[in-house]
Structures are given as C-alpha cells and as structure tokens.
Design brief:
It is built from no helices and 14 strands. The protein is globular. The protein has one domain: Hexapeptide repeat proteins (UDP N-Acetylglucosamine Acyltransferase, domain 1, 3 Solenoid), CATH 2.160.10. Strands 1-4-9-11-13-14 form a 6-stranded mixed beta sheet, with no helix packed on it. It is mainly β and 110 residues long.
Amino acid sequence: MESDQVTAGDGVEIYNPAPIRLGSHAILSQSSYLCGATHDFDDPAFPLLAFAMEVGPCAWICARACVAPGVNIGEGAVLGLASVATRDLEPWSVYAGAPAKKIRERQRTR
C-alpha cells in the first residue's frame, strides 16, 4: 500500500497504559473501545495489569465494538457492530457477538 492511514471515528476510546499498535489502514468506527488494561482482582491491592495490543493492517473494529485487554486483532479482521473481542481474532476473518465468534472468512484485499 502506498501510504499509512488509520481512521478513528467520533467517540473512539483507546485506553492504553501499555502500547497499542494500529496497523496501516486500520479502522476504528464510532464509539468503539480498545481496553488495554484491567486489574488483578485476586490481589487485595487490586494492581493494574496493562497489556500491549495490536490492531492489524486493514482491520476494522465496527461501531460500539469492544476489544478486551491483551486481545490482538489480526490483519484484515472485522469485529462486528457492538461485538466484544475477548480472544485474539484471526487474520481476514469476520467476528460478531458477545463474546465474538468467527462467522466467516473475509476476502483478502492485499
């Protein structure tokens, strides 16, 4: 691809106490949420646990979808409207639901 471009719609929230990498041509649609941390609820001190994450090139996080801490989105993967990714998404696959489940393959664009 000729240029790098990332698109983030209105109301996107990226909570990144650890690095979150956004690949070329990744799309974060309106009100989507990338959550890069949680807490160790088994520890009385309730410490923050931060995770590096990646949204691969040409991936699309649809409107109001959420990505849980430490989850990586593969190249070209799609996380459907209001879906919740609790595990890594395979490249060039489409996921939907809460928790998100793979529903089909996506045609490769590159």
